[in-house]
């Protein structure tokens, strides 16, 4: 893979041709047994390391400069970048190149390598990349790798790298409120797997780490059949006591007063990685502005209504770039062409650009960073028109109209196309379906 940047210096192919021909070179960079003829001024533009190396040299006539700590292959890539502004980054060389660039303070290359590694994150390598960022201080990549571990924990624990975590790292991860696991049993089994990898060294940490597991989120059967009966826990009196107390407190057994799961630290649900939102609609015979969020881990709905927001029904909703968009709709009096954006962090709404048409009963979907609003009813007729919203420029633009007028239709995306099925055309309910190709701006009918 080739990564390119646009550095502040404008590298010229002429300079690179002169370097390759060995003309006007005034220094030689030597790495191990390999020599690289260069122009000092070009390398000074690339990184302050070379500027300091050349200007602070005690011997003004010195031409050969030995650079320790990196390979000739990496130096060749860095020099190429100094002259061309581009560098070839691969899975095989990314880490070594990043370390070499960091050593030479070549920050443009460091950023390119970090971006590349961030795109390559997967369950097999995220722990290694995260731990590597402790050697090279790379806060953005470190944060990205860490969040990948937290968000993909169920897959990460299956990989060999998970077993290389330190006890401090394991404790920090297991304690996270936002650790993304469907079942708390996954957390317990990951802990046992980590300890069993080197039991002689790690058994001493069992009590401290088990306290990070939300034992109260497990069933009584699992606690008794799998946890209490395990060899590691069974030989640890502190752990046995912890689990017994959790059973008595949370499951309400024995004579202890029952404690609410939300109050007990071992039974508090972790933050949901995803939630289901129910926005607006009809309630009690009128449109409503209510918003409820469903936390599937806690199995409960939470009201997150903004009481300053107008009621809205028959609208479309889409999620894009961290925001929820409410598109069109109806409030018993007005058919809307307005679009509202909900910020999940602040729980506040704000207005974005309106659509070209008023649309209630509208079909809404997201594809390639655009929100599509298809058909609907404008208060007079069902619509065949369609449009799409680009959030970067806050603008709606019309696309080709559908073959049919459709309100109340279902739409979705598949393989970079938008499919819309059924609906109502003002006279009859439809069984027809069609798809939109954004590359050709065309709708095509498919089998009904």
Short structural description:
InterPro entries: BACK, BTB/POZ_dom, Kelch-typ_b-propeller, Kelch_1, SKP1/BTB/POZ_sf. The protein is of the alpha+beta class and 448 residues long.
Structural summary, described in words:
The protein has 448 residues and is α+β, with helices and mostly antiparallel strands. The chain has three domains: 2-120, Potassium Channel Kv1.1, Chain A (2-Layer Sandwich), CATH 3.30.710.10; 165-250, Serine Threonine Protein Phosphatase 5, Tetratricopeptide repeat (Alpha Horseshoe), CATH 1.25.40; 322-446, Neuraminidase. The chain has helices at 13-21, 40-46, 48-55, 72-84, 94-103, 107-120, 126-135, 139-151, 153-156, 167-174, 184-197, 199-202, 206-210, 220-227, 231-234, 237-250; strands spanning 2-4, 27-31, 34-38, 64-66, 86-88, 276-279, 282-283, 286-287, 291-295, 300-303, 316-320, 323-327, 339-343, 348-352, 363-367, 370-374, 386-390, 395-399, 410-414, 417-421, 433-437, 442-446. The strands form seven sheets. It has a four-stranded antiparallel sheet, with no helix packed on it. Strands 15-16-17-18 form a four-stranded antiparallel sheet, with no helix packed on it. The chain has a four-stranded antiparallel sheet with strand order 19-20-21-22, with no helix packed on it. The chain is flat, with a radius of gyration of 30 Å. The two termini are 44 Å apart. 30% of the residues are buried.
């Amino acid at each position: 893979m080739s990564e390119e940047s646009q550095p502040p210096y404008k590298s010229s192919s002429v300079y690179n041709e002169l370097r390759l021909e060995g003309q006007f070179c005034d220094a030689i960079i030597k790495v191990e047994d390999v020599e690289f003829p260069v122009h000092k001024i070009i390398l000074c533009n690339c990184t302050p390391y070379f500027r300091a190396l050349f200007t602070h040299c005690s011997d003004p006539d010195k031409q050969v400069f030995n650079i320790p700590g990196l390979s000739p292959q990496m130096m060749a890539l860095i020099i190429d970048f100094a002259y061309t502004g581009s560098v070839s980054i691969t899975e095989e060389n990314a880490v070594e190149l990043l370390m070499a660039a960091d050593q030479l303070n070549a920050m443009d290359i460091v950023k390119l390598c970090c971006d590349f590694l961030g795109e390559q994150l997967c369950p097999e390598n995220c722990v290694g990349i995260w731990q590597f960022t402790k050697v090279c201080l790379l806060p953005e990549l470190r944060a990205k790798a860490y969040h990948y571990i937290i968000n993909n924990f169920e897959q990460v624990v299956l990989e060999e790298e998970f077993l290389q975590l330190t006890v401090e790292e394991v404790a920090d991860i297991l304690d996270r409120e936002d650790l993304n696991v469907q079942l708390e049993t996954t957390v317990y089994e990951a802990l046992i797997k980590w300890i069993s990898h080197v039991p002689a060294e790690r058994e001493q940490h069992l009590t401290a780490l088990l306290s990070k597991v939300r034992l109260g989120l497990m069933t009584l059967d699992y606690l008794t059949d799998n946890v209490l009966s395990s060899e590691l826990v069974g030989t640890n009196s502190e752990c046995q006591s912890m689990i017994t107390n959790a059973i008595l407190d949370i499951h309400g057994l024995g004579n202890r007063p029952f404690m609410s799961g939300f109050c007990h630290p071992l039974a508090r649900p972790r933050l949901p990685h995803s939630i289901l939102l129910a926005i607006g609609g009809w309630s009690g015979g009128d449109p409503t502005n209510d918003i409820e969020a469903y936390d599937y881990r806690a199995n409960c709905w939470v009201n997150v209504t903004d009481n300053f927001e107008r009621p809205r029904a028959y609208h479309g909703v889409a999620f894009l770039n961290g925001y929820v968009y409410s598109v069109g709709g109806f409030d018993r009096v007005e058919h809307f062409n307005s679009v509202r954006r909900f910020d999940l962090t602040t729980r506040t709404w704000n207005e974005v650009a309106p659509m070209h048409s008023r649309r209630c009963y509208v079909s809404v979907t997201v594809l390639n960073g655009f929100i599509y609003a298809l058909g609907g009813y404008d208060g007079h007729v069902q619509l065949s028109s369609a449009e799409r919203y680009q959030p970067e420029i806050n603008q709606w633009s019309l696309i080709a109209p559908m073959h049919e007028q459709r309100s109340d239709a279902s739409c979705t995306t598949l393989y970079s196309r938008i499919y819309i099925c059924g609906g109502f055309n003002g006279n009859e309910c439809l069984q027809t379906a069609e798809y939109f190709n954004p590359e050709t701006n065309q709708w095509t009918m498919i089998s009904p």
